[in-house]
Amino acid sequence: MSKKTKQKHVLVQTPKVENQKKKERAFHFPLWLLPIIYSVMFVLFAWVFLVGKNADTLFFMQDRGYWNDSMVYFDHCMRMPGGFLSWAGSYLTQYFYYPAYGAAILILLWMLSFCVAWRSFHVRMELTFLLFIPLVALLCTEVHLGYWAYFMKDIDYSFYHSLGYFFALLLSVDYFRKLKYGGYIQMILVPVLFYYPLGVYALLATVLIAFRMFKDNWRSDWKAFILMFAMLGIVPLLETYGTTLMRPDQPWLFGLKRFEIGPVRDYRLEAPLVWLICSSLLIPLLGKKKDGSFGPKGLVISQLLMLVLAFGAYKVVSDRNFTDSNYHAELKMLRAVDEQRWDDVLSEFCVARGNPSRMMVMYRDIALLNKGELLSRYQYNNRPANPTVMSDSIVVRLCDTTGDFIYYNFGETCFGIRRAIERCMHYGFSYYTLRVLARCALINGEYDNVRKYLRLLEHSTFHKEWARELRPYLEDTTLIASSPRFGLVKRLYNGGSSMVGSDDYYVEPTIIHKLAHTATDNPEILDLALAYCLQSKDLKCFWAQVWQYHNINPDKPFHRYIQEAMLLYHNELKSGPADISEYNIDPQIAERYNVFISRMKEYAQNGMKEDQIGASLQPEFGDTYWWDYCVLRDIQSY
Amino acid sequence: MNNFQLSIFNFQFFLILLLLLSGCNRHPSLPQDYTQESEKPDIYPDYTDVTVPVNIAPLNFFVEQADKVVARIQAGDIAYNYGKGNKVIIPQKEWKKLLASAKDGRMTVDVYCKKNEQWSRYEPFSIEVAADSIDPYISYRALSPTYVGFEHLAIRQRCLENFSENDIFNTRQISTEKEGSCINCHSYQNYRTDNMMFHIRISHDATMIVHDGKLKNIRLKTPEMISVAVYPNWHPTLPLIAFSTDRTMQSFHTRDITKVEVMESASDIVFYDVEKNTMQTVLADSIELELFPSWSPDGKWLYFCSARYEFEALNNGMNETLNHYKQLQYNLYRAPFDMETRTLGEPELIYDAVSKGRSAVEQRVTSDNRYVLFAEGPNGLFHIWHPSAEIEILDQQTGKLVDTKVINSNRAESYPSFSSNDRWILFESRRDDGNYTRDYLAYFDKNGRVHKPFLIPQKDPEFFLLSVFSWSRPEFMKEPVKVTPKMFQEQALKEPGKVQPLPGQETAPASEDAEMDRWVIN
Questions:
Q1: CB B255 to CB A417 under 8 A?
Q2: Does B142 touch chain A (CB under 8 A)?
Q3: Could you read off the pLDDT of A413-454 as tens digits, one per residue?
Q4: Domain membership of residue B291 as a residue range
Q5: How far apart are CA B522 and CA B509, in angstroms?
Q6: What is the CA B362 to chain-centroid distance, rounded?
Q7: Are residues B230 and B88 part of one domain?
Q8: Distance from CA of B255 to the nearest CA of A (A)
Q9: What's this model's pTM, rounded to 2 decimal places?
């Protein structure tokens, strides 16, 4: 530029520059603070929802995940497009073992994505809040799963999309800006080199590059769109040609989660991923063409927009956050059962609001069983909750969720293995299933099988300690029966009957039926058989077990609840022996029974309905077997 | 990328390359200071004193208990040292030289292990190298050791001469979240892949048939058949596949680690003419459960197994089968086959397993019709779930069983087959851990003697210990499958064709039994 022109330029610009300076003097707001404020707000917001409200889900997601440090696993992941995201996603998911730790990594990844987007696309500081829209979508994907968490086939889900988004932004940075055809070269290289490791997110990066080029110079770079469409169409086809392991519709969308089971597809849960992709396409368009700020008016408008969006984000995330109290109680109880914290299982059961799900009842009974207090189950709230349903129509069944683990805890280890393997077939192997399988095989005496599962766990980051704790049981198998950890399950296994049949996908009735019909002279197992006769309400079976119990322990009084059942079955249902006096029924129990029956008949004669009678009797008799038997009928199994 | 960035990238790349190269000492030196051990090393897979074909892939192995391993492999004048951590990984080219040098002889392997900073030298072991080569490919089904459910499974092919492996077909290609698919029963005509087949079940239910290189999908069910066509075997020369058609059920143990019993309550044998697209029922005795047809390599005999069971009540097959599942035991039979008229002669019993209280299934025959290879278990047909199941070989010339102790273990063995030159036996076994099926190879020499089997070699010797997939139903192949997964996919998504019953064979539809829902105490 010549000296003359420069002077002219300066002269022309002077009033504007002065005006600008005046404005800046009058309105002296450090704009660089804005991205920092937004970031702090978002970090706090995400932290509250991830760690504050969903720590149990995060832990569960890692427990249902799987990663190992071998090339065998890496090669397995890399067979499909997006393989690297899958591998890295399942690696990072491990860190939810400590939910705060994993959440911190996830949020850090989001903030890195924010920084890359901001710096690479030169977004105005006043508009950087818009870069949080995709991140809010990603936050939604973490907190809205609910019972779908049990049915995730993508063990890498928690980090897959966050990593994909990050890499898509990173790959769309203008690395070749000094080369004449840099953008075009980048648009060819990115899908060609990264389609297999990054899958759909390599395609997203290609689109972002095209948008960036178009936005920078739309007059000349409209050709970028032609190249973009060509690359999007050709690369997935060429790279999967002949040897594809995908359906014909998948090469372009493989990796984008579909929430679909049977005839049901839940688009609501898929929406945040669509939102993520669409909103990220806006990022290149937010870049500024010239330096400078909006000025006070623009700033105020932009910040008002920010407030509206922040409020909207809060509403959307709150709305999507899955808050079902039974769901969270089940997750906490599952972990407590796994870690054999029996008192925590029971306290969690008690604090849960509403009626308990069958899963909660099973966990509670496992805790009571281990505390030797199974029959005290009638002192708890046994009112059945309605079957849990997800996406409006899919019943969450025990056999599909934690049936394997429940079977294990009742000593039904062969069925536990079956259910665990069937789960793996559909949802892949996980630390959870490997631990269930290892324990079941240990009880079955399949020690080489245990070694296999322990080896797999030892190749993980956080479950190797659990595996090492089991090694001594393999070195000295006599420890199994005597240990507090496995002793009861081993005794249940040894005391159970050897049968062949099927559970027909019903875990709870199978356990009740199996235990109630156990033919045994082992006093501990017999106690359990009697307890389960009360649940099965099979009178013939009940009296047979009573007779067996009395033969083995002629001087030992029956448990209070067994006595209550004897009175009810004998006096009211006219079953069992003609005379039950030899069973030494406690007179106080008999007297209370008479009161219960007379009260019930009285209420019935007064025209009260069944539920009204149940409610009226509960304060006085809610802790009895009679109340459960007469009021809690038709408990649905699922 | 600007020049600075490019130079950084190059520098880093160079550094990484340098580091990688410096770590790749391909031939480590042998330790000088060691203690001599009196036993052979405990290596995985166990390749000690095995006999291998001259064209097998490198037998990589590792020593679990060692921190470092160095192995010296010597064959004739050639010797190399290998060791990478506790693994011995042998480069393909050098392994080929070793094999060529040891052909019809042996190579010796001298193993040194370092543990707690102390080197030990173990007794050397040998690897016999038979001059008989092995069919270069096998195919198998990769899946979790599942019972009923299926979703992620594939039929894969593996080159035994190296480590290359790929999917023939994968259920991912057609399964949706709504409905999964099962693929099974791959079969080839005379070890070649121009004529081959496998079934797809549930979603896109059909049989994929490649005939003279051309692909079609057919639903192999006629009204008179009990079920769709199930267990197949291609005639070695004719365009004819023998199938069993059967009603299968499963029941589960609560204590027995057998875990599952697979039973048939009805079973017949049919022939499918690939060219004419006709189905012909050939064995349908109402009190015989004929199963697993297989042709002799000359095509003149049809071998099969059959269990004799007379049901007490009509249409009560399933419940009765469950009650008497232990009594369902199979004998081996063969029937002459007239290749001109395509008719079967009178079946003859060739092996009476039932009198021994056993059940013999999945038979295969050598080219000279002398040896019959089969799996024998306590009852039923799915011996991979029976820990006492073993591989047996019947010498039809002497009527006696060949001593097969060396290839059996105290865990399940099943689904054996001969290579095309009869010298190699491929079978599946759960000997490693009791639950995951692995494929083994064993040499069967000209004198009818079986040699110690060995696990299919893998690039990473730890592979099978870390893999959560079973390798089931292995089959030898002389060549890889030429039809690509994409071609199979395109065909599978098309509406399948229908098969015609052979004229004069139309009968009343076979009845369907009620679902089983009961328990039996063992």
A1: no
A2: no
A3: 999 999 999 999 888 899 999 999 999 999 999 999 999 999
A4: 137-501
A5: 35
A6: 11
A7: no
A8: 5
A9: 0.92
